[in-house]
Amino acid sequence: MNDVQTIGILGGGQLGRMLSVAASRLGLRCHIYEPGAAPAGDVAHAVTNASYEDEAALRAFAESVDVITYEFENVPTSALDLLESIRPIRPNRRALAVSQDRLTEKTFLNEIGLATAPFADVPTEGDLGGAIDRIGRPSILKTRRMGYDGKGQVRVGDGPAEWTGAPSVLEGFVDFSAEISVIVARGADGQVAAFDPGLNVHREGILRTTTVPCGLAGAVTTDAVLIAARIVSALDYIGVMGVELFVTPRGLIVNEIAPRVHNSGHWTQAGCAVDQFEQHIRAVAGLPLGDGKRYADVVMENLIGDDLGRVPDLLRAPNTQVHLYGKGAPRPGRKMGHVNRITG
Ligand code: ATP
Ligand code: MG
């Protein structure tokens, strides 16, 4: 594994794009596998544009790389089975299986002693009434699989509850004072490095800003980092993981984990010598991790949809790093880029 030259990345979005740039700085090549549009392909050594059912394409992709990683966790199991028979997948399959499904994820977190929102399995619409009786209102119904940016979620208030249309979990509403996340990395040698927790603000279910330092007491940030380290160690994880947490008066509650680089870790590009993308590449390539120390205060802001119109001004702003994903025409709710403002 120490002779990794080419990294295969499943998924060709902005995360794959920024991973590919980071890999290139270390003299490595990336091969992107993406069924749809692939902005990552613009900056990669090779791109395969094929479906996850195309066995010949999957096989050729796997044989052309030394290790396989992903920027997108909802890759079909059949594709992963085939790929894994040819090359190692990092982070491992257990991390993927756990985080692909909100029910499995919460069960795993509770099993390793971490607090989550109270939850109930809601396999069908007929199970919803019983679940609401157990969890109470307000609560949030979320599809078990495939949700992102708040998609597949329904608030359960006082009125009749809507159905998501797919097997779901009902989560008790957490009355949090803040949302934070930890971007943690674990190397092939078991070494763990975490970036400073960031304070996240969401609007309409989509992350808008991440601010570091997060402004919370040291006891809270230390606890957050310890929780993240416990999760990656329990999974024998290799790579970067995003751990989203709610801050409550009764302590930290894990919202969800993402087995990949994470939007709330984009600030590391302007705040650290080794950012989350390079850290992930180092881990999956079997290289030593960077230390993750933060040397600047940063506010990361996502550029969503028409925010793209602000780019000319942002390009003129001091202490501002502009990242654009090369996605073409903006659509409402679509992440088009982000900016990192160095604030101190
Ligand atoms: P993303 O892709 O941004 O991570 P997602 O679609 O996976 O989002 P969640 O992280 O589960 O969705 O939820 C999105 C946001 O909705 C959370 O960051 C939080 O602001 C709010 N939220 C989710 N679950 C709860 C809860 N149980 N109680 C209170 N707020 C919640
Ligand atoms: Mg989330």
TrEMBL record:
<feature type="domain" description="ATP-grasp">
    <location>
        <begin position="106"/>
        <end position="285"/>
    </location>
</feature>
<dbReference type="InterPro" id="IPR011054">
    <property type="entry name" value="Rudment_hybrid_motif"/>
</dbReference>
<dbReference type="Pfam" id="PF17769">
    <property type="entry name" value="PurK_C"/>
</dbReference>
<comment type="pathway">
    <text>Purine metabolism; IMP biosynthesis via de novo pathway; 5-amino-1-(5-phospho-D-ribosyl)imidazole-4-carboxylate from 5-amino-1-(5-phospho-D-ribosyl)imidazole (N5-CAIR route): step 1/2.</text>
</comment>
<feature type="binding site">
    <location>
        <position position="142"/>
    </location>
    <ligand>
        <name>ATP</name>
    </ligand>
</feature>
<dbReference type="Pfam" id="PF02222">
    <property type="entry name" value="ATP-grasp"/>
</dbReference>
<comment type="subunit">
    <text>Homodimer.</text>
</comment>
<feature type="binding site">
    <location>
        <begin position="147"/>
        <end position="153"/>
    </location>
    <ligand>
        <name>ATP</name>
    </ligand>
</feature>
<feature type="binding site">
    <location>
        <position position="102"/>
    </location>
    <ligand>
        <name>ATP</name>
    </ligand>
</feature>
<comment type="function">
    <text>Catalyzes the ATP-dependent conversion of 5-aminoimidazole ribonucleotide (AIR) and HCO(3)(-) to N5-carboxyaminoimidazole ribonucleotide (N5-CAIR).</text>
</comment>
<keyword id="KW-0547">Nucleotide-binding</keyword>
<dbReference type="InterPro" id="IPR016185">
    <property type="entry name" value="PreATP-grasp_dom_sf"/>
</dbReference>
<dbReference type="InterPro" id="IPR005875">
    <property type="entry name" value="PurK"/>
</dbReference>
<dbReference type="InterPro" id="IPR011761">
    <property type="entry name" value="ATP-grasp"/>
</dbReference>
<dbReference type="InterPro" id="IPR054350">
    <property type="entry name" value="PurT/PurK_preATP-grasp"/>
</dbReference>
<dbReference type="Pfam" id="PF22660">
    <property type="entry name" value="RS_preATP-grasp-like"/>
</dbReference>
<dbReference type="InterPro" id="IPR003135">
    <property type="entry name" value="ATP-grasp_carboxylate-amine"/>
</dbReference>
<keyword id="KW-0067">ATP-binding</keyword>
<keyword id="KW-0436">Ligase</keyword>
<protein>
    <recommendedName>
        <fullName>N5-carboxyaminoimidazole ribonucleotide synthase</fullName>
        <ecNumber>6.3.4.18</ecNumber>
    </recommendedName>
</protein>
<dbReference type="GO" id="GO:0034028">
    <property type="term" value="F:5-(carboxyamino)imidazole ribonucleotide synthase activity"/>
</dbReference>
<feature type="binding site">
    <location>
        <position position="202"/>
    </location>
    <ligand>
        <name>ATP</name>
    </ligand>
</feature>
<comment type="similarity">
    <text>Belongs to the PurK/PurT family.</text>
</comment>
<feature type="binding site">
    <location>
        <begin position="255"/>
        <end position="256"/>
    </location>
    <ligand>
        <name>ATP</name>
    </ligand>
</feature>
<feature type="binding site">
    <location>
        <begin position="171"/>
        <end position="174"/>
    </location>
    <ligand>
        <name>ATP</name>
    </ligand>
</feature>
<feature type="binding site">
    <location>
        <position position="179"/>
    </location>
    <ligand>
        <name>ATP</name>
    </ligand>
</feature>
<dbReference type="InterPro" id="IPR040686">
    <property type="entry name" value="PurK_C"/>
</dbReference>
<comment type="function">
    <text>Catalyzes the ATP-dependent conversion of 5-aminoimidazole ribonucleotide (AIR) and HCO(3)- to N5-carboxyaminoimidazole ribonucleotide (N5-CAIR).</text>
</comment>
<keyword id="KW-0658">Purine biosynthesis</keyword>
<dbReference type="InterPro" id="IPR013815">
    <property type="entry name" value="ATP_grasp_subdomain_1"/>
</dbReference>
